């Protein structure tokens, strides 16, 4: 039986997403919850249904569940098959649970990227009211000005939705238009990174991915992958 928390006017939510940084975030949240003696929740959001997660992603989720049980986290929440932006989902869960502190990870972001693409953190701050946001950032592993550290590449696909927006997917489907390799930025808890693929002219192309959405321009008519 879990003990009754003494500080019920505080509540912590840790947001994790597909990567090794998740365990670090959960442990950071647990330490803070112990200090404050308050409830702790862990949330992961994904566009795919749970049964369509690839083996690597499923393994991460299972490890997070085991860690949450070990640390006696109050609840591990999976919001799968979620079509809304993750910011909206985080806001909804935070309000439902009366969250006062949110912990999440984000890789270092260059100033020009904030200006041109916008900062996920800034968007979240605009959505949340009376909630403290803790950002756990990893140091850059490469020292060049334009260098961004990436995790090991994983096979992925691009699909085009009804609004003409290209979205990243990790499941094989007749709706996939491009197949390639996705390199996720180290330290981010969402699908932010670079997607490399071979276009119809036989040349290697790359586009930026922000929260599963392709932010680069694709002009070549793709061949559907069967």
Topology, element by element:
Layout: E1 12-16, H1 21-36, E2 40-45, H2 55-70, E3 75-79, H3 86-96, E4 101-105, H4 111-117, H5 120-127, E5 132-136, E6 154-160, E7 166-169, E8 176-184, E9 193-198, E10 204-210, E11 213-214
Parallel strand pairs: 1-2, 1-4, 2-3, 4-5
Antiparallel strand pairs: 6-7, 6-8, 8-9, 9-10, 10-11
Helix pairs in contact: 3-5
Terminal Cα span: 51 Å
CATH T-level fold name of the largest domain: Rossmann fold
Give the averaged pLDDT, no decimals: 79
As a whole number of angstroms, the C-alpha radius of gyration is 18 Å
In percent terms, what proportion of residues is strand? 25-35%
Sheet with the most strands, sense and barrel status: 6 strands, antiparallel
Give the CATH class of the largest domain. Answer: Alpha Beta
Give the CATH architecture of the largest domain. Answer: 3-Layer(aba) Sandwich
pLDDT < 50 runs, ≥5 residues: 108-117, 139-147, 220-226
Overall body shape? elongated
CATH homology-level superfamily of the largest domain: HUPs
Order of helix and strand elements from N to C terminus: EHEHEHEHHEEEEEEE
- Work out the helicity level: 25-40%
What is the SS-derived class?
alpha/beta
Number-wise, the strands total 11
Total helix count? Answer: 5
Physical arrangement of strands within the biggest beta sheet = 7-6-8-9-10-11
């Amino acid at each position: 039986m879990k003990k009754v928390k003494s500080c019920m006017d505080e509540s912590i939510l840790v947001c994790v997403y597909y990567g090794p940084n998740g365990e670090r975030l959960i442990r950071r949240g647990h330490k803070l919850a112990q200090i404050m003696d308050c409830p702790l929740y862990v949330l992961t959001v994904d566009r795919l249904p749970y049964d369509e997660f690839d083996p690597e992603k499923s393994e991460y989720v299972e490890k997070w569940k085991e860690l949450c049980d070990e640390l006696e986290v109050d609840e591990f929440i999976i919001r799968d098959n979620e079509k809304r932006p993750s910011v909206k989902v985080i806001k909804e869960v935070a309000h439902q649970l009366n969250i006062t502190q949110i912990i999440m990870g984000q890789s270092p972001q260059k100033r020009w990227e904030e200006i041109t693409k916008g900062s996920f953190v800034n968007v979240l701050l605009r959505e949340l009211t009376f909630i403290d946001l803790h950002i756990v950032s990893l140091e850059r592993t490469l020292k060049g000005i334009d260098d961004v550290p990436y995790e090991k590449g994983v096979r992925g696909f691009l699909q085009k939705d009804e609004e003409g927006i290209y979205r990243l997917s990790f499941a094989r489907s007749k709706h996939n238009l491009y197949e390639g390799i996705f390199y996720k930025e180290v330290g981010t808890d969402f699908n932010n990174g670079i997607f490399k693929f071979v276009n119809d002219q036989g040349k290697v192309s790359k586009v930026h991915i922000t929260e599963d959405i392709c932010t680069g321009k694709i002009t070549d008519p793709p061949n559907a992958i069967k």
